[in-house]
């Protein structure tokens, strides 16, 4: 049986591994905090009888062999990196559920036809380098040399440098790519990060689709001048131009409809002094929708408005696309397995869409995927108040366990 006490112990231990004690969980990719969390999980995975290995993107796997040698694997897991000042359940709930499933399989001496692998993906959030779902994109062969060697964090460290400090060779990331047919199914348990399950009084959500995501980074350049002596007609204020773009991003998203959302979540202003006209503004745009056509149209409108504003105000700009993942429909066979197992275990369910991006949406290009959601109290996530009752995580883990056994034969 799935044990709530073990799930609670694991989640509480991981929650204490943060660079911002008392201010939520901050555990960025390729950091000392991620290393310490992995050290704990390595010991627990080995105790569950798993054979451990790491790929060249930094993903950590725990494998249990099946009766069929060289057969495709049933893989399940999530991530342990976080946003800055995030919560204790986003990612770890899926990792600990996968670990608990492996423990029960060992304890009950369950044999499967197909091999099983739990996976700890690295840099799902993108909180350090601004381009998330890194581990799954590497497995799907969707990373570039520019991202590895030119992308930098706030301290100016490239991803390649961070990888080397983690004991990885950035030149060998391509080796992490998975061959077609090598994965029978990829399953991910995650907190909902919204209020639907709690409001409907359901134990778990069975995801039917995941939104597509585009992430853009924009730089607008003007001219730094004295705030007191430069007349308004002579100014090239990068922040004025950027602020108009911010407003239009919101307008375009609302006009696009069909669940389209867009967020300007990161803004850096240079020189950043109260008495100097801003010379440069660097900001992000996060664009999501359930339709690729809607995403494309909204992105074009945003870029066109940016071009027009900069031309009108005598500004220059750079537009960089960091992440592009299309909307994903969940594999219907896996969805039906979730439904069947939930009925057998008397777990109440709700069929739903995911408005957040996850590793599963990238893995859909590699293998059939399925996702389970567990409730989020008050719908809160990406904040210290993020919470899911341990008993609710356990119900999701029990569903995951049953689905893994069925899919692996």
Characterize this entry briefly.
This protein is α/β, with parallel strands linked by helices and 409 residues long. It has 12 helices and 14 strands. It has 2 domains: 4-210 and 327-407, 3-Layer(aba) Sandwich (Aminopeptidase); 212-325, 2-Layer Sandwich (Alpha-Beta Plaits).
Number of helices: 12
CATH architecture of the largest domain: 3-Layer(aba) Sandwich
**In one word, what is the shape?**
elongated
CATH superfamily of the largest domain: Zn peptidases
The CATH class of the largest domain:
Alpha Beta
CA-atom Rg in angstroms: 22 Å
Strand content: 15-25%
How is the secondary structure organized here?
Layout: H1 4-15, H2 32-47, E1 51-54, E2 60-64, E3 73-79, H3 92-107, E4 116-121, H4 134-139, H5 145-150, H6 159-165, E5 183-191, H7 196-200, E6 204-210, E7 212-221, H8 238-256, E8 261-263, E9 267-270, E10 280-289, H9 292-313, E11 316-325, E12 328-329, H10 332-344, E13 349-354, H11 359-363, E14 369-374, H12 390-407
Helix pairs in contact: 1-3, 1-12, 3-12, 8-9, 10-12
Please explain how this structure is put together:
The protein is 35% helix and 22% strand. With 409 residues, it is of the alpha/beta class. The strands form 2 sheets. Strands 1, 2, 3, 4, 5, 6, 12, 13 and 14 form a 9-stranded mixed β-sheet that branches. Helix 3 (92-107) links the parallel strand 3 (73-79) and strand 4. The longest helix is centred in the last third of the chain and has 22 residues, at 292-313. The two termini are 19 Å apart.
Which properties best describe this structure?
409 residues, Alpha-Beta Plaits, 2 domains, nine-stranded mixed β-sheet, 22% strand, alpha/beta, Aminopeptidase, five-stranded antiparallel β-sheet
């Amino acid at each position: 049986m799935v044990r709530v006490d073990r799930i609670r112990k694991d989640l509480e231990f991981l929650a204490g591994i943060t660079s911002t004690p008392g201010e939520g969980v901050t555990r960025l990719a390729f950091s000392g905090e991620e290393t310490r969390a992995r050290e704990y999980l390595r010991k627990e995975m080995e105790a569950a009888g798993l054979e451990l290995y790491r790929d060249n993107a930094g993903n950590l796997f725990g494998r249990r062999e099946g009766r069929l040698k060289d057969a495709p694997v049933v893989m399940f897991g999530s991530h342990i990196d976080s946003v800055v000042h995030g919560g204790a359940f986003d990612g770890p709930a899926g990792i600990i559920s996968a670990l608990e499933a492996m423990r029960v399989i060992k304890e009950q001496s369950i044999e499967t036809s197909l091999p099983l692998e739990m996976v700890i993906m690295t840099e799902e959030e993108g909180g350090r380098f601004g381009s998330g779902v890194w581990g799954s994109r590497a497995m799907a062969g969707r990373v570039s040399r520019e991202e590895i060697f030119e992308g930098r964090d706030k301290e100016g460290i490239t991803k390649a440098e961070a990888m080397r400090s983690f004991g990885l060779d950035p030149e060998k990331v391509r080796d992490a790519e998975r061959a077609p047919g090598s994965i029978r199914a990829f399953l991910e348990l995650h907190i909902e990060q919204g209020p639907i399950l709690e409001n409907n009084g359901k134990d778990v959500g069975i995801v039917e689709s995941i939104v597509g995501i585009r992430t853009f980074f924009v730089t607008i350049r003007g001219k730094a001048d004295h705030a007191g002596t430069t007349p308004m007609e002579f100014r090239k204020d990068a922040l004025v131009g950027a602020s108009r773009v911010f407003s239009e991003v919101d307008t375009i998203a609302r006009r696009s409809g069909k669940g389209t959302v867009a967020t300007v979540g990161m803004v850096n202003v240079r020189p950043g002094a109260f008495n100097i006209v801003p010379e440069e503004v660097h900001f992000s745009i996060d664009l999501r929708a359930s339709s690729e056509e809607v995403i494309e149209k909204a992105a074009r409108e945003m870029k066109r408005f940016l071009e027009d504003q900069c031309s009108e105000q005598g500004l220059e700009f750079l537009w960089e696309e960091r992440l592009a993942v299309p909307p994903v429909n969940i594999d219907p066979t896996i969805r039906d397995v979730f439904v069947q197992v939930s009925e057998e275990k008397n777990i109440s369910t709700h069929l739903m869409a995911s408005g957040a991006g996850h590793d599963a949406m990238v893995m859909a290009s590699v293998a059939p995927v399925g996702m389970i959601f567990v409730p989020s109290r008050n719908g809160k996530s990406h904040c210290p108040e993020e919470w899911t009752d341990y008993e609710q995580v356990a119900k999701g883990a029990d569903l995951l366990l049953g689905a893994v056994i069925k899919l692996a034969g």
